[in-house]
Write a structure and sequence with these properties.
By secondary structure, this protein is an all-alpha fold. Helices cover 63% and strands 0% of the residues. The protein has 11 helices and no strands.
């Protein structure tokens, strides 16, 4: 930078002595000649000063420069440009430098037009290519393609197998005592361990889940397959909650009503029998749910199988109710009233409630 400045000063000193003052034209000469003489002598224009960089300014400072001197040197050279962050940056160079008045006046840059096949003679982007075919239909929801339900059923199956391997003696003993008729009322009721209780409660929860899946299969096949819910899991969860409340209310109503008419020993025997029967109901329903989900069995066959299981459970309930409560009295009318009040009416109420929920949640086209 200093060398350019000295060269510029030497040039000015060489030019200034040679520059002659402008004299008036001598008589007898033309004005054009005088103009040519005037134009022959020209003072060179000073070159604009180059932009100094920050590192050049810092190199001129002594090594022991103070921070204040460094800051002053940087501020004398550095000129920050204020840019609005809200202004979008044209990183692809798509827009033209000049203002575009119409949409048809847009000129794309060469970086946008050029590509790998630009010089290929077979490339004709100006030609419209028609695509043959029709739009595909979306794949309907299926349990066999659902990872969440598959993992849940697989986990339930593994827990069920593990529980059976540890408690198979208890299960066989309960099955024998379920069909055993006690001749005397002085027989004590067998006690159950905490593991046996947890196993039976787990099986009741599995029964609620299987009934919820069967209700979901029937709803999708015969009622509707689109709902106002965001996912199918919410509908399955609603069905699971309804069946859980149903079994919970049965477990609460039975002890309350039976305590008014029967003794504590019979009530305890009845509750254990109902808990075991509900647990085994899930074991019987599990194969049909797996067959319908992953082996393509029809929904009608699954519903018929479930109806047969339900009828069989209700018949076993009548049998156990008669053996425990009404075997000595022989009151047929009382057992019918008892069964209708605590079994048939709650089941019909549950079915009506499920129908009402489905009608409310489905989308009517």
């Amino acid at each position: 930078m200093h060398t350019d400045w000295f060269q510029q000063q030497d040039t000015l000193q060489q030019v200034r002595p040679s520059a002659q003052p402008v004299t008036e034209p001598v008589e007898g000469t033309t004005s054009e000649a005088s103009l040519e003489e005037e134009t022959t002598v020209a003072v060179p224009q000073e070159k604009p000063e180059r932009t100094r960089h920050t590192y050049q300014e810092l190199q001129q400072l002594p090594p022991n420069a103070t921070p204040a001197q460094l800051d002053s040197a940087i501020q004398s050279v550095f000129r920050p440009e204020v840019k609005s962050l809200a202004t979008p940056q044209d990183t692809l160079l798509l827009s033209s430098k000049d203002s575009v008045q119409e949409a048809t006046d847009i000129n794309f840059s060469k970086y946008y037009k050029e590509g790998f096949f630009t010089n290929n003679a077979l490339l004709h982007p100006e030609l419209n290519v028609e695509r043959y075919g029709v739009a595909g239909d979306p794949v309907p929801y299926s349990i066999q393609n659902d990872d969440v339900i598959t993992g849940l059923l697989l986990g339930c199956f593994l827990l069920m197998v593990f529980s059976f391997s540890r408690l198979h003696h208890f299960i066989l003993q309960q099955a024998k005592s379920f069909f055993h008729i006690q001749r005397s009322e002085n027989v004590t009721v067998s006690t159950e361990t905490s593991d046996e209780f947890r196993f039976q409660f787990f099986m009741v929860a599995l029964t609620c889940l299987l009934w919820a899946l069967l209700a979901f299969f029937y709803t999708q096949a015969n009622v509707a397959d689109t709902f106002i819910l965001q996912s199918q899991y919410q509908l399955i969860a609603i069905f699971f909650g309804c069946f859980s409340v149903y079994f919970l209310l049965k477990g609460i109503l039975y002890p309350v009503l039976n305590s008014l008419f029967f003794n504590r020993k019979k009530n305890e025997q009845w509750m254990k029998s109902m808990l075991y029967l509900s647990a085994m109901e899930g074991v019987v329903l599990f194969p049909i749910v797996m067959l319908q989900s992953y082996f393509g069995i029809s929904v009608q066959s699954a519903i018929i199988y479930a109806a047969v299981v339900l009828i069989l459970v209700k018949l076993l309930t009548i049998y156990k109710c008669f053996v425990i409560f009404f075997r000595q009295n022989g009151a047929i009318l009382q057992i019918i009233l008892y069964f209708c009040a605590l079994e048939i009416v709650p089941m019909l109420a549950l079915a009506g409630f499920l129908v009402m929920i489905v009608d409310y949640l489905k989308i009517n086209f």
